[in-house]
Amino acid sequence: MDAIRVTVWRGNTVEATHLVHVASTGGDQRGDPGLVCHFRSSMKPLQAVPLVESYNDLTDDEIAIACASHEAETAQIEAVRVLLARAEATEDDLELGLQPGRPHGKLGHNCSGKHAGMLAACHANGWPTHPYRDPAHPLQRRILELMGPGDVAADGCGVPTVAMPIERMAQVFTMIPPRIVEAMLARSDLVGGSRADDTDLVLALPGWIAKRGAEGLLCALSPDGVGWAFKVADGSARALRPAIGQLLGIDAFRRVPVHNSIGETVGSIE
C-alpha cells in the first residue's frame, strides 16, 4: 500500500505534505518497509540491555530513564542522578555535550539517562569507564551484537547508532527484554515526558510501549508482541501523530492543531 500522506493546512490552503512509511511484524505495511534509516533514539530500549544484564535490583525508574529521551523534568533529572550514583560517576563523566536552552547542564541533555545507564553497566562489568561511546568498547560491542549488521554512525549524543530497514526495526523492537518492557510501561512518563509522542501513545493505548527517535522515527510494541516502526520520509516529526492516529485508531492523534505565536489555532496537521 502507499505511504500515509499527512497534510499541513493553514486556513483552507495546503502548505505541506509528508509521507510516512510504516512496517510491522504483524504484516501491516504502508509505503516502503525496506526504507533504510538510522535507529537513533528509538534504539534506546536495546541500548539499555547491558545495564539490565548487569544488575538484579534495578528500579523501574532507573531502567525507564536509561531508555528515555527526556524533557529535563524534575523526576527525570532525579532518576538520572540515581543511575549516576549507582555507577559511582558524576555529571562530568557523561560523554555528551550541552543542549542549548535546556537546564541542569549535561544532566538536562535528553540522552543523559542513556549515558548514565551505560556508565553503570561499565561499573558493574569492570569495563573501562572511558571512552564508553567508542564502537570498539565492550559495552558498544555488546549493543551492536544485539542490533545485527548495518551502517554504524555516531548519533547526536555521540554514541553509535545503526542503520537498517524499518521492517527490521519493527522486528528488533520485539526483542526488548520483558524487564525493560515492564519498566517502560510503569514509568512511561520518564521515557518521554509531557506532550512527548511516545509517552502520549502509551497513555492512549494501555499495554503498549513506544520510543521516538530523531528525524521523524517512532517504534512501538503492542501487548500481543507486534513490533511497529513509523518513519516520516522527510524527517519531520510533526507528521507522526496523524499517521499513528490513523493506523492505530487513536482519535486524539488524528488531527494536530497549528497555532500562531499568540496561541490562536490557524490550521491543522491531519
Architecture overview:
The chain has one domain (4-269): Beta-lactamase, CATH 3.40.710. The protein has helices at 44-47, 49-54, 60-66, 74-86, 112-125, 138-147, 166-173, 178-186, 188-191, 197-204, 240-248, and strands at 4-10, 13-24, 36-38, 152-154, 160-165, 209-213, 217-221, 227-232, 256-259, 265-269. The protein is built from 11 helices and 10 strands. It is 34% helix and 21% strand. The strands form 2 sheets. It has a 7-stranded antiparallel beta sheet with strand order 6-7-8-2-1-10-9. The chain has a 3-stranded antiparallel beta sheet with strand order 3-5-4. The two termini are 19 Å apart. With 270 residues, the protein is of the alpha+beta class.
Helical stretch tally: 11
Strand order of the largest sheet: 6-7-8-2-1-10-9
Helix/strand-derived class? alpha+beta
Distance between the first and last residues' Cα:
19 Å
Question: What CATH architecture would you give?
Answer: 3-Layer(aba) Sandwich
CATH topology-level fold name? Beta-lactamase
- Tell the overall outline: globular
Tell me the count of domains.
Answer: 1
* Helix share, percent: 25-40%
CATH class: Alpha Beta
Q: What average pLDDT do the residues reach?
A: 97
Q: Major sheet: size, sense and barrel closure?
A: 7 strands, antiparallel
| Beta-strand segment tally | 10
Please provide the ordered H/E string of secondary-structure elements.
EEEHHHHHHEEHHHHEEEHEE
Radius of gyration: 18 Å
